[in-house]
Amino acid sequence: MLAPRQDIKAQLKQALREALLALGLDELPEVVVQETPPDKEGDYGTPLAMSLARALRKPPPQIATELLQRIVLPPWVRRAFVVGGYLNFELEPAFLLENALAPLPPFAPKGGKVLLEHTSVNPNKELHVGHLRNICLGDSLARILRFVGHRVEVMNYIDDTGRQAAESLFALAYFGLKDPDPSVKYDHWVGEAYVRLHRAMADAEQKAQIEAGVQATLHCLEAGELRDEVDRILRAQLLTMYRLGAEYDALVWESDIVREGLLQKAMRALEATPYVFRPSQGKYAGALVMDTSPFIPGLEDPYLVLIRSNGTSTYTAKDIALQFWKMGLLEGLRFRLYDTQPSGAPLYSTHPQGEPMPFGGAQETINVVDARQSHALRVVQASLEVEGRHDLAERCFHLAYETVLLEGQQMSGRKGITVSVDEVLDEAVRRVRAVIAEKNPDHPSPEEAAEQIGVGAVRFAMLKTEAKKQIDFRYEQALSLEGDTGPYVQYAYARAGSILRKAEEMDLLGERPDLAQATPYEVALAKTLLRFGEVVQEAARARAPHLLAQYLLDLAAAWNSFYNAKTPEGKPATPVLTAPPGLRGVRLALVAALRQTLRQGLGLLGLKAPEVM
């Protein structure tokens, strides 16, 4: 049994800190250790001397030399040397490889609970491309946070008292649509009625009649009279979410927030502060208003209406009540079992006939909401500051993401200019199925593989780009086996698995590695493998799944470089199965470690790892 993997960079950083203390520094700067570029000597290096040059008034090479003279190196460092202003470290190749082959130790449990809200699609029509990024970001981040030791609760907010739901349900009645088309998924069928209603509202006479009907439907929704109708739409939407691989811990219905009195409690708490009041005159007369100027400077109008003068609440007021519940400032929601998800995990939902359960009360919240809602989320954060809870406000994180184009086109639900998530997934799977039929007609399970690769390609395309950048999703690019795609990473996994299966057939898997025979090719791949734990931790810290996606692309590229390496004579430089005994054992162990890391990384991004492509 191999010992757990050591953190090489952490140990080098500690050695450098002790060398700095030996130099007489009282205040230690941030110590950075990074891999050296492929064309430079050594395995790792630090630019520490350059960051100290101004403070110490010495040239970086001199500082690096003084550090070298004082540093006590771990035994696995073969040599340390100065290159310009850098202090570089060359490690024992056998140690590097042994460490890369060792299992990643489990991360220590983190204190507190993180409540992560994502998806939260209006229950009025099918999910469209614009929702894809939200689901993929939220689900992947939850997986990553759990992996590094956080206790995560995933919530999906159901806005069942909003106008969009009212419009869809009224549309069904307005057009006399009582019998759904059995050939059409239910949320799509309802969505067609929603779009049709908005087209009808272009006629002034119809608009007045429709508006009255929508308002009446809103009152029924708020009274909880149409919950079953909304639930039918929601269950159809959940089928799409499940197909994407997303699952949740709890559904929180807006009507329950209102019905259980959380909205009124939140408003009373805010009204007890100096920042929330009811003006007696002016345009805000009679309304409950929050002055956000002490917390959000620079606004042209810092007053925000929470309760309108007619007594109706704004979206913001409901969002504030929800946030107060999330962070334990309010209690009172009841839950009951709603569904058993594809993984077998239970899904709970708020319900008037439910029971108290330990949902909410988190020490940190993450809301995955598109960047256009940044001000609204900042207002929710400010409400915590108004309540005097600056500590909670600092732990209220908005994961903002930019919009998604499909083949260059912007989506619009009301105008009917949409492509549904179901259509995107179906098309991706159809295209993959055609490629499998052409390239691998004897595939043992083509349907399963097409689903895994097609859905995985869509998810990866939503995750590989930094959230603050817009995505233009294009099928041909996303489904390619080359370049920065999910199938490229999946293919690297499948290729590694193919080698290991052949090794098993040849009874080679138990061969003992001889680390002394390792070449620079194995060392290069091992160094890329060793970055996995560090990258996952940084992706969790920065709330940035794209960092893990980019790492997996780097790892797949490093594996392909290893696999395709040639000698100066043009012969394969790194054969695995035909390598000399001992070296073959090293390469087989390295392929197994690579496969395990790819599988873990793909799983954290919500992608399946197909055994055969």
UniProtKB/TrEMBL annotation:
PROSITE patterns given in the database record: AA_TRNA_LIGASE_I (PS00178)
HAMAP family membership: Arg_tRNA_synth (MF_00123)
Organism lineage: Bacteria, Thermotogati, Deinococcota, Deinococci, Thermales
Domain of life from the UniProt record: Bacteria
Domain DALR anticodon binding positions: 489-613
Subcellular location: Cytoplasm
Pfam families: Arg_tRNA_synt_N (PF03485), DALR_1 (PF05746), tRNA-synt_1d (PF00750)
Assigned EC number: 6.1.1.19
Protein name: Arginine--tRNA ligase
GO biological process, one term: arginyl-tRNA aminoacylation
One term of GO molecular function: arginine-tRNA ligase activity
Gene3D superfamilies the record matches: Arginyl tRNA synthetase N-terminal domain, HUPs, Isoleucyl-tRNA Synthetase, Domain 1
Quaternary structure annotation from Swiss-Prot or TrEMBL: Monomer.
Family in the record: Belongs to the class-I aminoacyl-tRNA synthetase family.
Entry keyword set: Aminoacyl-tRNA synthetase, ATP-binding, Cytoplasm, Ligase, Nucleotide-binding, Protein biosynthesis
Stretches assigned to the Arginyl tRNA synthetase N-terminal domain: 6-91
Catalytic activity: tRNA(Arg) + L-arginine + ATP = L-arginyl-tRNA(Arg) + AMP + diphosphate
Motif 'HIGH' region boundaries: 121-131
Main localization, broad class: cytoplasm
NCBIfam families hit by this protein: PRK01611.3-4
One CC-aspect GO term: cytoplasm
